[in-house]
């Protein structure tokens, strides 16, 4: 049985490549704290445009997007981009 493909060299290479672009979060449009600890909600995480659970490719650079950890988690495996953008209840 193979190990977790996210621990493999090709995946780590894709993450490093995407991180190197220094792009803002593709979900909310705000800057990502690339220097932040990986556990921080505003730190970088690799998101997949087409979620893996819906047939997206793990290693395809065209499916890779830069996102905040918080935005990526909020989006889950939904396909719509706006799912992670939270509306303020402070009116």
List the helices and strands and how they pair.
Elements: H1 9-21, E1 44-48, E2 64-68, H2 69-75
Antiparallel strand pairs: 1-2
DSSP helix fraction: 10-25%
The averaged pLDDT comes out at 89
Give the biggest sheet: 2 strands, antiparallel
Number of extended strands = 2
The dominant shape is: globular
C-alpha termini separation: 53 Å
Reading side by side through the largest sheet, how are the strands ordered?
1-2
Provide the succession of SSEs.
HEEH
What is the alpha-carbon Rg in Å? 14 Å
Structural category: alpha+beta
Tell me about this structure:
The chain has a domain at 24-78. Helices cover 22% and strands 11% of the residues. It is built from two helices and two strands. The chain has helices at residues 9-21, 69-75; strands at residues 44-48, 64-68. Strands 1-2 form a two-stranded antiparallel ribbon. The longest helix has 13 residues, at 9-21. It is globular, with a radius of gyration of 14 Å. The mean pLDDT is 89.
């Amino acid at each position: 049985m193979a190990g977790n493909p996210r621990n493999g060299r090709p995946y780590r290479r894709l993450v490093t490549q995407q991180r190197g672009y220094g792009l803002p979060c593709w979900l909310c449009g705000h800057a990502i704290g690339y220097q932040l600890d990986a556990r921080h909600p505003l730190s970088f995480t690799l998101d997949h445009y087409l979620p893996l659970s819906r047939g997206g490719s793990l290693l395809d650079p065209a499916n890779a997007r830069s996102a905040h950890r918080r935005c990526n988690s909020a989006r889950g495996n939904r396909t719509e981009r706006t799912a992670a953008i939270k509306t303020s209840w402070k009116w």
